[in-house]
From TrEMBL:
<protein>
    <submittedName>
        <fullName>NAD(P)H-dependent oxidoreductase</fullName>
    </submittedName>
</protein>
<dbReference type="InterPro" id="IPR029479">
    <property type="entry name" value="Nitroreductase"/>
</dbReference>
<dbReference type="Pfam" id="PF00881">
    <property type="entry name" value="Nitroreductase"/>
</dbReference>
<keyword id="KW-0288">FMN</keyword>
<keyword id="KW-0285">Flavoprotein</keyword>
<keyword id="KW-0521">NADP</keyword>
<keyword id="KW-0560">Oxidoreductase</keyword>
<dbReference type="InterPro" id="IPR033878">
    <property type="entry name" value="NfsB-like"/>
</dbReference>
<dbReference type="InterPro" id="IPR000415">
    <property type="entry name" value="Nitroreductase-like"/>
</dbReference>
<comment type="similarity">
    <text>Belongs to the nitroreductase family.</text>
</comment>
<feature type="domain" description="Nitroreductase">
    <location>
        <begin position="9"/>
        <end position="186"/>
    </location>
</feature>
Length: 211
């Protein structure tokens, strides 16, 4: 398995993880780093990734995630949690960080900051959360590709009750709302109904249009 396409053929939304197998720390770190490096709208990175290590927390989450076994049986459980709103502070922090790291202020960039400040904080928190959540989905996509690259199995999940997960993880106090779960681990071939089934995708002609 050498090409990225081979690895994307190999990956699938794993239904049964082997609880005895742990993803090595360096692989986990590279998957998280890929997410940190991926693109977000205006570079605001309006979400965070929680690595839920506490088994008791994972036990509590599972019944609120359609009782999906991967929540407790995977090696690691990632939670993608988006900002509940775009505030002046949050926008300024990202622009200030950029100026600090690049070591200069740029007129065009500052004008862009003012444009966002005039736009985002005026919108409803829900509209801003929805926009932030879309950025978290880009992170999920990147994590799926990075996991495949590391030959680590993953199950993207939106089958859970976000309000319950927010409560369990105390996300509201941090201005965050859970968007997606991503168990990472290694497939347990016995007991996984999906593992040997053909990957089904629409043919390219139905999917890509050249105009
Ligand atoms: C945003 C998103 C949410 C998903 N939620 C779940 C889920 O809660 N449980 C699950 O078993 N699979 C879930 N899936 C997996 C999809 O069903 C799966 O990716 C799709 O059928 C394509 O198959 P493959 O990923 O195995 O190639 C989700 C996938 C995505 C992208």
């Amino acid at each position: 398995m050498t090409t990225l396409i081979d690895k994307l053929q190999w990956r699938y939304a794993t239904k049964k993880m082997n609880p005895a197998l742990r993803v090595p720390q360096d692989k986990l770190d590279r998957i998280l780093e890929a997410v940190r490096l991926t693109a977000t709208s205006s570079g605001l990175q309006p979400y965070e990734v929680l690595v839920v290590n506490d088994p008791a927390l994972r036990e509590r989450i599972r019944p609120h995630a359609w009782n999906q076994a991967q929540v407790t049986e995977a090696s690691h459980l990632l939670v993608f949690a988006a900002w509940d709103n775009y505030t002046v502070d949050r926008i300024n922090q990202m622009f200030d960080l950029t100026n600090e790291q690049r070591g200069f202020k740029n007129e065009g960039w500052e004008a862009y900051r003012q444009k966002l400040l005039a736009m985002y904080p005026q919108r409803s928190a829900e509209e801003n959360y929805q926009h932030a959540a879309r950025q978290a989905y880009i992170g999920l996509g990147t994590a799926l590709i990075a996991a495949a690259e590391e030959q680590v199995d993953a199950t993207p999940m939106e089958g859970f009750d976000p309000a319950a997960v927010d409560e369990i993880l105390g996300l509201k106090a941090h201005g965050l709302r859970s968007v997606l779960l991503l168990p990472l681990g290694y497939r347990q071939v016995e007991g996984d109904w999906l593992v040997n089934l053909k990957k089904v995708r629409r043919p390219k002609d139905d999917f890509v249009t050249e105009v």
